[in-house]
Each structure stands twice: as C-alpha cells, then as structure tokens.
Design brief:
Length: 372
C-alpha cells in the first residue's frame, strides 16, 4: 500500500504536500471574464456568458439545445418534471450513485426504485432493468421515467437501457453529472435519452463554482426547458408576464463566465486526465489484489475519478486510512441509496453487484495537472 502512495506522489510531482482528490484548475481567461462581468454589472441571470456557455456546450456535446442551470440537482428535478414525472409516480434508478439522483426524483413527488449496477460499468444494469419489468407488471403503468447514471465518467450500457425503456414508452433522463467529455462510440453521454444533465460542481472535470446543464436532443423541447427553468417569462420589452408554473433555476452570468473560460481549456484538461488514467492503468497492472476500473468497450472516458477495487472492505478501509493519514486524499464510493435512512423502505432488487462495488472501491486523486 505504501508503494501506491509513493506512485501517486510521483504522478502529481508532490513529494510531501497534500494531494486533493480533484481540485479545479484555472489556467485560462477566468479572471478576465469574471472581471468583465463585474465591470459591466452583468453578474446575475442575464449576460453574454450564459448564452455563450450554452452554445459551447451544445457544440461540444452535439446536443440540439443546452440549457444552463444553477446545479445538477435542480437540472435533474426540472428534467424529470418536464418529461412528465409527478406526485405518486415511480422512477427507476440505481442505488450506486450520489444522493442528488434520488433527491431529484423525490423532489418531483415521485418515488425512486433502486436497481443493481453492472460490475464493469458501475452504472445501471439493463439486465436488472429487464428483470424488474418482468417481475413487476402491475407497477409498470406508474413508472414515468428511468434515470441511469454514468458513474465516474464511464458510460453505462445506455443504448440497451433506452431500448428496454422504449418497449414500455418510458422516457430516459440521463444523470451525466460526471460525464462531460465522455463519449460512447462517438456520442456524448447525456445525449442518448430524452434529456441529460451535466454538473459543474467544484470537483468536476470543469467547474462554474456550482452549476449544471440540461442537454436536449430536440431543439423545440430544449427551448421549452429553457423557458420553464427561467420562470416561464413571456418575452416583452418591459412587462413581466409568465405563462406557466415554473422554476427560477437560471445560471448566473458570473458562473457562466467561469464556465466559458473552462470550456476553452477542456480539451487540454481531458488530455491530461487521460494520461493520468493511463499511468494508473499501467501501475495497477502489476499490483496484486487491486484492480483498476477501466472504461468499458467503446467508451472514451473522461476518467473523472480514477478508481480501483481492493480485495475486500477490510483492505479498502486500511488503504483509505493509510492514504488520508499520509496527506493523499482518497475516498470510497457513496453509501448506497437503499442504505440511507430516507430511502431504506424504497423497493430495490437486492443490489448484489452494487454492494460488492461499494465495499471494495476507492477513488484516487484524479485532477488535471495543468499549471497557470
């Protein structure tokens, strides 16, 4: 285990100091764009950078429309509501995810059902999805959406998931919070379902401080998303009229300015993160009892958080203690949603793979090493 810590310090050229899990890097025009927001006084939800950030993200991901919002959780909540999820409905998702996925479902008034993950992708298993439909025919009419999650930047078997959901006319909303810069067979994550959601939290591949983006494959539907997440205000030179119950989830211009500068460096950031991932892959190929979690076939991953699987929970916990005591930040995956008190009574399918993954996985330092 000491050899792993030495390797990480060598990889990040940090012989003694603290190594964070994934710190943001600001090597571009961030200060210039933020100063422009202040100088022009456009720091709130109106300004040139919001539109530019949306357009840059649309062009990069290949979505028909990209809508900037205040964070990924609000983006998921709005996306689910706009595909028809509401009070009393059921939404199929996975237990191995960050709590925002389940909270967004609950915030619509619906109830999340937690399905198992594939051991290779860590994302929702389409086999588990098929099995749930076969075992619960009486509940299918109440299912109004499916929310698979692309874990750690790796693509789940999203095409199969969409195909299964299409058989039952159930829309797919992709939680691609960790997926900016990841592609499956050339198609960006978050663009396979009806809607997809990205996150720009401070620890993501790029950051706006806090923020999210809703991706739509249909421009008209994307325009509706924009309208409803921006208070449903009817355009007019001076009057304030609104034509629907809506949300004020607009991303402020000052956050979008940061996003624009970060997007200009995205290719460099992704390239370095993939070099880091390759170094981890090569190193762990010679380490007994520790397996590197690689991208699944066909996935060009952003390797948001490089992850390894230890032999068992005991070995995982020993390394977590050793590495963090040594000033190298590591962490386990999230507690399974089914094990949290507010979701303990929700239906799940046993979660065999998810429980093993959760017990063995450790996230390693994965931030880009770019210097200003």
């Amino acid at each position: 285990m000491d050899a792993i810590i030495r390797f990480i310090r060598q990889l990040y050229d940090e012989p003694e100091g603290f190594i964070p899990l994934h710190a943001p890097v600001f090597t571009g025009r961030e200060k210039e764009y933020l100063a422009r927001c202040i100088d022009t006084t456009f720091v709130s939800s109106v300004g040139e950078y919001v539109t530019r950030f949306e357009e840059m993200t649309r062009d990069f991901t290949g979505a028909a429309r990209a809508v900037a919002v205040v964070n990924g959780t609000c983006g998921l909540t709005a996306a689910l509501s706009l595909v028809g999820v509401g009070h009393g409905d059921l939404v199929l998702s996975q237990a191995l995810t960050f709590v925002a996925t389940a909270n967004a479902i609950s915030n619509t008034g619906a109830t999340p059902i937690f399905l198992d993950s594939d051991p290779d992708t860590l994302g929702m298993s389409p086999d588990a999805l098929r099995a749930w439909f076969a075992a619960n025919p009486e509940k299918i009419a109440r299912v109004k959406a499916c929310v698979p999650v692309h874990i750690l930047g790796h693509a789940c078997r999203i095409r199969e998931i969409c195909a299964v959901c299409d058989e039952h006319a159930i829309p797919v909303v992709e939680d691609a919070a960790e997926g900016l810069g990841s592609f499956l067979n050339g198609q960006h994550l978050g663009t396979f379902g009806r809607l997809g959601v990205l996150s720009y939290n401070g620890n993501k591949t790029i950051t706006t401080g806090g923020g999210g983006m809703i991706l739509a494959g249909d421009e008209d539907f994307g325009n509706l998303v924009k309208h409803r997440t921006a208070t449903a205000k009817v355009p007019h030179r001076w009057e304030f009229r609104h034509d629907a119950v809506a949300w004020n989830y607009r991303m402020p211009n000052i956050n979008a300015a940061l996003g624009c500068a970060q997007m200009e460096k995205l290719d460099e950031i992704l390239a370095d993160k993939r070099v880091v991932a390759a170094a981890y892959r090569d190193f762990f190929a010679d380490v007994d009892g520790v397996d590197f979690v690689d991208a699944p076939p066909g996935c060009l991953s952003n390797f948001w958080l490089n992850t390894v699987l230890f032999r068992d929970r005991e070995a995982r916990d020993a390394f977590l203690a050793l590495s963090n005591d040594a000033g190298v930040m590591t962490r386990p995956l999230w507690a399974l949603m089914a094990d949290l008190p507010m979701y303990a009574d929700n239906d799940n399918d046993g979660l065999k793979n998810a429980r093993e993954l959760s017990a063995r996985a450790v996230n390693l330092p994965s931030g880009p090493r770019l210097k200003a």
